[in-house]
Design goal:
Length: 122
Amino acid sequence: QVDLAESGGGSVQAGGSMRLSCAASGDGYKEMCMGWFRQAPGKGREFVSFISRLDITRSSDSVKDRFTSSKDNDGNTLFLEMTNVKPEDTGVYFCVAQQGCLQLMEGRAKYWGRGTQVTVSS
């Protein structure tokens, strides 16, 4: 069992920056691919970014060059660094973990956090 707890959400103006954190606990998460999904109001969940157990990162085209996933040295905390945010980045951001990164990107992650709200004002 893996538990994920997001923090760091809130309100930010367009063009600004924000960092989300996800504290992981339980068994086996250090061997998993970890990442982020988001859900805008009235829309489905969308893949944002991941970092593999070998520290390979990938972000969706909509956030590429603006958002990046990273981990602390112990691998216990996942981060999402968000820069040059836009109003369309508004939504609930979920931390996720799954054995394979492809499955994670497809929305088939086994473990999900409860989410943290990010609101970008213009």
